[in-house]
Each structure stands twice: as C-alpha cells, then as structure tokens.
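Narrative of activities, Objective 1.

The group set out to show that a structural description can be obtained from nothing but a protein's sequence at a throughput compatible with the screening campaign. Below is one input-output pair from the validation batch, recorded exactly as produced.
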Amino acid sequence: MIFKELFKEQIKLDNRIIKEHKLEGQDLFNNKIVSFIVELSECSNEIRFFKHWSNKGPSPKAVILEEAIDCLHFLLSIGNDLNNDYLLSYNYEPDNKNMTFTDDFIDIINKVTSLQVCHRGKYKELEEYMYIELLSVFLSFCNKLGFTEKDLEMAYYKKNAINYKRQDMGY
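Output recorded for this entry:
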C-alpha cells in the first residue's frame, strides 16, 4: 500500500494542530509515539484478543476499524516527522509473519520503541528500516482483522474529516 496521499493529508492536519495549539518549535515525536501506543492498546481492548478470562466477544467491526485508524493517523504523523521522502512513496506490504494478534501487538510495540531509540540516538541510520517494519506489521494486524487497503484508506479520510471538525470546535 502506498500512503503518499495519506502522508500529505496527515501533515496538513498536524500543521493545523501545531499552529492552533501554539506548538511551533516543539518536538512532538515522543508524544506521537505514546499516542500511537495508547491507540493501539485501545484497539486491542476492542478486539479483546488478550482477554483469556472473558467470554465477551470483540466490539463491532466498525468500532475496531475506527480505533485502527486512530493508530494509522499517529503512524503517518510519526512517518512525516522522520522527514524521509523514501518513506512517503514506499509500497508498504503486510509482513504476515506472526500468527496471532498477541504476536503482532508485541512486535508492533517492540518496533515502535525501537524506532524511538533509533530516532533519538546513534542508530538514526536504522530508523527508515524500523519505520517500514513497523508499518508492515501494523498492516498485518489490520489484515487479520479483515480490513483491506481500501477499507483503511476510506476510514482514514472519514476520520480525518472528523478530526478537522473537532479542531473547528476547539478540541
């Protein structure tokens, strides 16, 4: 999946948020990492794959998709912060190496924290690789949920419009 247009849309929203919340010059990378982890956790809570103690099933697919798209918003925002043109036009493919949601969740957390370490430290040359790996595992996670590329793209634009309305209302 090529996210070039979604990266462009995300940077427009991010720039609006930065301007309206007077965040110019602030480094928001770590906030975005934490936000992504929180959204991934919220998505996982709706799927309930880790709740071996409960018989309650997952939330409706639309609820799960909305949570997954919240994750995607932050992933795109993180990608834009890396300021790497190659990442913007890369054709991301799900890696599908993990068998379970639990494996994907742990792999995604490991990759996003590794990306943060690469971005902040002496391993900056690995951040491109880590970001590609992160987005590939996230796509695999979404595929396991039954979401297609078109589902993700359409849901992104829908949620992006909601995010703009929220900003209009002083969110």
